Amino acid sequence: MKMKLMYAVVLALVAFAFVGCSKDKDEPIQTGGSIDVAVGKYKGKVEIPGTNALFDQSVTVTKVSNDRVKVSFDNKSLKVADREFNVTNQGGMFVQGAVGATGGSFLFDIKEKSLLTQFTVMAAGERLVTFNGDKQ
């Protein structure tokens, strides 16, 4: 009886050894990439606390350097100063600003071609401004 149990345990261990080994190739994690995909004109909604949402507003994203973009509101009557963000291409899925960066946030979804950016208050007289729109 003990021999049968021992053979069963050895057989199970051998079976698991072959199942555990696979020929899956290790795919490298995608990092980096160009931020150029986020550059362009966007049309969408602007939200400023204490006011009604403004639709059909435009922003322009320009490349400042290989890891920096500038966001400008086309409607100058909003009196929103241009803002620059340090960004990286996150594996070809997003172009994203540093989490918790002073000045606000920047997130471009490459597949959906949508931009969500928020300008935080940095100086007296500034307002919190959020833009959510699609690349044109």
Structural description of this entry:
By secondary structure, this protein is mainly β. It has a single domain, classed as Lipocalin, CATH 2.40.128. Helices cover 14% and strands 42% of the residues. Strands 1-2-3-4-5-6-7-8 form an eight-stranded antiparallel β-barrel. The mean pLDDT is 84.
Give the helices and strands, then pairings.
Layout lengths: L1 H19 L19 E8 L6 E12 L2 E6 L9 E8 L3 E4 L6 E6 L4 E6 L9 E7 L1
Antiparallel strand pairs: 1-2, 1-8, 2-3, 3-4, 4-5, 5-6, 6-7, 7-8
Please count the beta strands (DSSP E, at least 2 residues each): 8
The CATH topology annotation reads as Lipocalin
Tell me the major beta sheet.
8 strands, antiparallel, barrel
- Helical proportion, percent range: 10-25%
Q: In a few lines, what is going on in this structure?
A:
With 136 residues, the protein is mostly beta strands.
Task: State the main characteristics.
14% helix; Lipocalin; eight-stranded antiparallel beta barrel; 136 residues; mainly beta; 42% strand
